[in-house]
Specification:
The protein is an alpha+beta fold and about 950 residues long. It has 27 helices and 38 strands. About 40% of the residues lie in helices and about 20% in strands. About 45% of the residues are buried.
């Protein structure tokens, strides 16, 4: 019998191990370099902008919190495993099943003893890192000198400390639970805890360790219960009607939480005693009693109090707490300074009634920024690769010594429309910026219904470009390309297209960016970094990138402000303005919180949603505190960002200034020109009007009865969304002179929209004029004025007025004439103004082609006062007709005599591309004459109908029919 030895086990060759290790190292280095490239690109961006301290603060805070979280979890878990293992019984008799478990676990024991703590430590580290802002706010929190009415603590505790302590208690609870689980597992595997024969045996060492951890856990739960008492001030109470404790919460739930907190501490002490004496009965019985007590005190007793004491007498028992909620809500939303006026509205229109309001009527806006966008594009776009915002923005300028409300937009670049000219070189090096701003008078029109431009054209012409320091180039805007590379050494021929020169085929003048707008890509290393960031090898190899090149990216004003001030929520409506010759974007920033005591919580997205902003999204949606604490500007040429502390007394802003020192400037540094363009922010006003629907009352009795609850009316042009607020220069009752303001209206609240009564109950205006003095805020800026309309006077709401416009036979017939041919009518925004002792409605009516090139042009103006309406070619005419032939005031279009018919298109600056839409033909004189005849016949027919003159009615009807047939015939010929 021969035997052969077993072959030697093959071992990996040394070269394979070296290759494997080398590949692993290379892979790690590649990953590390990509991570470094991303971080370094961020550093270059922040450093160029001068906000590197913001990025450094975030990096340091995240790393510190990760380390704290990692060690806070990993060290206790490691100690628990080590103690449970080292204190195991040496000669414990184990079952065969545990022996098999140990055989499996033992080879991996060392790895598990270190790997488990590291595993949980990484999760805890990342979780702690995500909470760095909560921790830093606590460390830098400030006192507010305002106390809550329940515990009499400074509200700064709720804003800064309570969120931190809540997060800390949650973290420590998680650590203790993990420690308890791993201790029990290790003790079981190694015989410290034995289960068998209906008996549980625990060794002394395991008993001490488990009892101490359990006692610590219950001690932490006692702290959590104590903290829950304070959390009731920011949670729904009184059956969900308010935020903050009502009678039941204040007199049953809070007391129950206090008792349970002490009970948890007592149970924890019993566990500590068990660790010494070894008796489990007492702490286990106490734990069971604690659970029962939690049910009784947390559920049963509050139910009894609420059911048998509060609900039958809710108006009495809850009155104090409703008043607390009213006061807290008004303070948190900045509506505590509301100036209310009882307003008995006049509903009859008499001659000369508007004479005292002439300064307001002359500024009534008849150019709707949400409608005339296509008109601006057709008249001012010049090339497909330019674009304007939609909707346009509203601003005001001083022109010839008088303030003028304007519709404004910047001409931005749209490289997606380059068509066949699209290439990396063109999109990155040549087409780098937009050019100029368009400004039109909001209260004026041309004879053919177009805007009256105050600033327009390429090159720019108008009152803004008269300033020799005016910089029309727009490198940073809402629609700017993802990135552009600009800049070149002095003397290098410019390659950036400045603007088109005309239709003669020339490319137009060129320019070179001369500002400091982005990180340098003048060296090979920075080129590599950004080639990786944007996944574009052209950045690395393009000859157009030189030693003086800069890369411009993150060019949207909101993105830039959000990155340098990450603690702010930004207004959804940034707007461009010209300040000291530079186009600047003005961005409003808010500090938010959900932890202001006794303040009603509202979903921010729902509060600001309307027909112009239908789907907003926010990281912190449910809020109960808001302040417009920061005004930010972004220079459209070089992208520089300046943050001004607009409300320096805001405690949240003060805390964030401690976190990010030296990033804010006081508003006293704002120039007079900038101050004159600051306005009250849109989203803040929407949130405040949402709260004032209920919180316009001052006493708890009215609040409880909800006998005067309001709602924001739906937009007459979009019934599925709320009507947005509008900016206007107007004079509220009690004001000395007209002021740039924002307004909204209220109608009665109803749970069924179809049955709601659409009459006006309130009219709210916010003074949006910040003044025109450098560093001095206007005395009345932000003043909220509310007109509470007398219930005995019925003033139609926007829905009623729009319905009256649409159903009036005279208006309907004239609208039908306007839609003859291939035209459609667009109703503009329905404005409401407190003039003539009542409320005046004004709505511009635009006409545009139903298909093809669309150019909305103002054709008519609808006005209403009380139950009377008028529909004329101009606002001035409509007011005169409405107020007995002479209103006593004029609109901004008083000098205009409208021309009927369509408006000729502007001369094209270049031939239309193949397959493009040709310019529409200009209507003939014959067509215009027929249209005038139809309009005249229709008016005569209506007058005859009202007078009962049937012979004249028949004659006018025949003339109208003939004119309409003529119009149809001429339309078919075009």
């Amino acid at each position: 019998m021969t035997t052969t030895s077993a072959p030697n086990t093959a071992t990996p060759s040394r070269s394979r191990r070296v290759i494997a290790i080398t590949l692993a190292v290379i892979a790690a280095l590649v990953v590390a370099f990509f991570v470094f490239a991303s971080l370094y690109a961020d550093w270059l961006w922040y450093e160029q902008l001068g906000f590197e301290s913001v990025l450094l603060t975030q990096w340091v805070a995240r790393v510190v919190m990760f380390v704290i979280g990692f060690l806070g979890m990993a060290v206790p878990v490691w100690l628990s495993i080590q103690l449970a293992y080292r204190l195991r019984p040496v000669y414990a008799r184990l079952s065969s099943q545990l022996d098999r478990y140990q055989e499996v676990v033992e080879p991996l024991r060392r790895l598990a003893m270190w790997g488990i703590p590291v595993f949980f430590g990484f999760f805890a580290g990342f979780a702690a890192s995500a909470q760095w802002e909560t921790t830093w706010l606590w460390l830098n929190g400030v006192a507010t000198d305002t106390t809550d009415p329940e515990f009499h603590l400074d509200t700064g505790f709720y804003l800064f400390a309570m969120p931190f302590w809540g997060a800390l208690v949650g973290f420590v609870s998680a650590v203790l639970l993990v420690c308890l689980l791993v201790t029990a597992l290790v003790s079981y595997l190694y015989g410290s805890v034995r289960i068998g024969q209906r008996e549980l045996r625990i060794s002394k060492s395991a008993r001490i360790q488990l009892a101490v951890i359990a006692g610590l856990y219950l001690l932490v739960q006692g702290v959590s219960l104590w903290l829950d008492r304070y959390k009731t001030l920011v949670e729904p109470g009184a059956g969900g009607r308010i935020t903050g404790p009502g009678y039941t919460e204040a007199n049953a739930i809070i007391q129950g939480q206090t008792i349970l907190a002490f009970a948890a501490v007592i149970v924890a002490i019993l566990f500590f005693v068990t660790a010494v004496i070894g008796r489990w009965r007492y702490p286990l019985i106490a734990t069971a009693l604690l659970v029962v007590s939690a049910i009784v005190l947390g559920v049963g007793y509050p139910w009894v109090v609420n059911t048998f004491q509060v609900q039958p007498n809710q108006d009495v028992y809850e009155r104090e707490y409703f008043q607390r909620n009213i006061d807290g809500t008004k303070a948190a939303y900045g509506i505590d300074g509301l100036e209310k006026t009882e307003f008995t509205a006049t509903t009859t229109a008499d001659a000369g009634q508007l004479r005292s309001d002439a300064a307001t009527t002359t500024q009534i806006r008849i150019m709707d920024p949400a409608v005339i966008g296509p008109t601006i594009r057709q008249l001012e776009q010049y090339r497909p690769y330019y674009q304007f915002g939609n909707p346009l923005d509203v601003d005001r300028y001083e022109i010839d010594g008088a303030m003028q409300d304007t519709i404004v937009s910047v001409r931005e670049l749209n490289v997606d429309q380059l068509g066949a000219g699209a290439s990396w070189v063109n999109e990155t090096l040549v087409y780098t910026h937009g050019y100029g701003m368009v400004a039109a008078a909001g209260n004026e029109r041309t004879v053919d219904g177009n805007p009256v431009f105050l600033e327009r054209g390429i090159p720019a012409t108008g009152f803004l470009s008269e300033n020799p320091d005016f910089q029309p180039r727009v490198y940073f805007g809402e629609k700017s390309p993802e990135y552009s590379i600009v800049g070149a050494p002095e003397g290098t021929p410019p390659i950036e297209l400045d603007y088109p020169s005309g239709s003669d085929g020339s490319a137009g003048p060129r320019t070179t960016f001369e500002g400091d707008g982005g990180p340098s890509v003048g060296n090979a290393f920075n080129r590599l970094i950004y080639a990786l960031k944007f996944q574009s090898e052209q950045i690395l190899f393009a000859d157009g990138v030189n030693e003086d090149s800069q890369i411009l990216y993150d060019r949207d004003p909101l993105s830039r402000v959000r990155k340098v001030a990450p603690y702010l929520e930004l207004d959804s409506d940034p707007y461009p303005t010209v300040v000291d010759g530079r186009i600047k974007w003005v961005v409003d920033g808010y500090t938010l919180s959900a932890n202001y005591p006794y303040s009603k919580t509202v979903p921010l997205s729902a509060a600001i949603a309307d027909s112009t902003n239908t789907q907003p999204r926010f990281a912190l949606d449910d809020i109960n505190y808001i302040r417009n604490s920061v005004k930010a500007t972004v220079d459209a040429y070089d992208g520089s960002v300046t943050l001004y502390a607009w409300e320096p007394e805001d405690p949240l802003l003060q805390a964030w200034q401690n976190v990010y020192p030296s990033t804010l400037e006081p508003f006293s540094e704002m120039s007079a020109d900038l101050m004159s363009h600051v306005r009250y922010p849109t989203d803040l006003f929407k949130v405040q009007r949402a709260m004032l629907q209920v919180y316009h009352v001052d006493d708890a009795q009215s609040f409880y009865e909800r006998d005067n609850a309001w709602a924001t009316p739906e937009d007459p042009q979009n019934p599925n969304a709320l009507q947005p607020p509008y900016y206007l220069t107007m004079q509220m009752p009690g004001q000395a002179s007209p002021s740039f303001s924002m307004f909204t209206t209220f109608i009665p609240s109803s749970s069924t929209g179809a049955e709601s009564r659409n009459v006006l109950m309130g009219y709210l205006a916010a003074d949006s004029n910040a003044g025109a003095e450098a560093g001095i805020k206007g005395e009345d800026y932000g003043k909220l004025r509310l007109l509470e309309i007398d219930a005995e006077t019925t003033v139609p709401g926007p829905g009623q007025v729009q319905n009256r416009f649409d159903s009036d036979p005279v208006v309907s017939q004239q609208i039908n004439v306007l839609t003859i041919g291939q035209s459609e009518v667009i109703n503009g925004n329905l404005l409401t103004l407190p003039v003539g002792g009542g409320l005046l409605y004004v709505q511009p009516v635009f006409v545009q082609a139903a298909e093809g090139t669309q150019l909305p042009q103002l054709r008519k103006v609808l006005v209403a006062f009380g139950d009377q309406i008028a529909f004329e070619d101009t606002l001035s005419e409509a007011l005169d007709v409405l107020f007995g032939g002479d209103s006593g005031a004029e609109g901004g279009d008083g000098e205009v005599t409208p021309t009927p018919g369509e408006t000729p298109q502007p001369e094209p600056t270049e031939p239309p591309e193949e397959g493009g839409t040709p310019d529409p033909e200009v209507p003939t004189d014959e067509y215009q004459a027929a249209l005038e005849e139809a309009q005249e016949a229709m008016m005569e027919r209506q007058e005859a109908l009202q007078a009962g003159d049937w012979a004249a009615y028949g004659e006018a009807d025949e003339r109208l029919t003939a004119a309409v047939e003529k119009l149809i015939e001429l339309g078919a010929q075009q």
